[in-house]
Every structure is written in C-alpha cells, then in structure tokens.
Amino acid sequence: MTTPTPPAKASAGPVGKDEVVAATLSAAAELFAERGPAATSIRDIATRSKVNHGLIYRHFGTKEQLVGAVLEHLGGRLTALLDGEVSDGEIEQNMDQHMRVMARALLDGYPIGELQTRFPGVNRLLDEVLPRFEDERNGRLAVANAVALQLGWRFFEPFLRSAAGLASISDDEVRTAAGAEIARILQPGAAAD
C-alpha cells in the first residue's frame, strides 16, 4: 500500500528580507511601467510578487517611497548592466522600463526628481561629456538636451513619424538619425550651429 502524495502547494513566495525586497521591486517596476503608480495598488504588487502586502509596507513605507525605491533600483540595475557583459537588447529593455516608470510616475504627479536620488545613466554621460566643454553649464545643458531627445523619440515616435511625414523611414534609419543628432548635441559649439 502506498501513501498518497499530498497535493502540490502553490509555488511559495519569496522568503527573507532580500528575496522579499527583490521580488517587490521587480513586480512594482513591471506594474508601474505597464500602468503607472497611480493605477497600481500595493495589493497588485503583493499579488504579482507573491509577497504579503504588509511586508511591502514594512520594507518600503509609503507608496511614494516605493516609487523612489523602484527608480533607484532601475538606475542601479542599468549601471550594473552597462558595466557588465550583456547584450544591447538587455540594456535597451532595462532603459525602456526605467523610462516608462519615470514617465508614468511624472504623469501621475510623483516628484521623481526628489524620489530618485541617484542618476547613474545621466552621471555616466556627464562624466563622458563635461570634459569636452569649457563651460560646465553648457555641457550639462547638452546632456539634458540629448536625454530629452532620446525620451522624446521613445515616447512620441508614432506621433513624430506621422506629424513629420516619416512613416516610410525604417526604425534603423530613425535610430541612426537620432543617434547622430545626440552625438552632435554632445559636442561643444553644437548649440551655436
């Protein structure tokens, strides 16, 4: 006679602070990118991460603090990816998620400039570009303009293609043209052209 096998339990959720924090940040980043923070409840995040919602409050505090933690997490992950040997696709996917969370949080009224305290991607670009400029202010403006151009194309590409009559241009041509314009912006004297 054999002993009956108990039914399989649903997959267990994360255990311990590190696993809970990692699962929460991952789920929150996905949901914030998909819907925005305002349309995402702590319970939604708890369900996706398989973390008790009380633990989310314990480890992150308010929803606003969680938004800040997600932004910091995505920025840190981007830095790690840029420093590692990973595919451009993985870097692009992380950048896309980070930019979407930033945009949705801004549109939802979150003060992301206060919630995110480190900006590793922009800092890396500043470190690369500022030595080219005699005037630090102009270098910082060039970096801000380059980032704004990248964000604009990422979020408004369908509108820009239609409004400017660029529907027949390939994605590669758009990326190449935007990249060339960003490179031009990041050169001293570009604003005077």
TrEMBL record:
What are the record keywords, sorted?
DNA-binding
One Pfam family assigned to this protein is TetR_N
Instruction: Give the domain of life.
Output: Bacteria
DNA-binding interval(s): 41-60
In this protein, which residues make up the domain named HTH tetR-type? 18-78
A molecular function (GO) held by this record is: DNA-binding transcription factor activity
Task: Provide the protein name.
Answer: TetR family transcriptional regulator
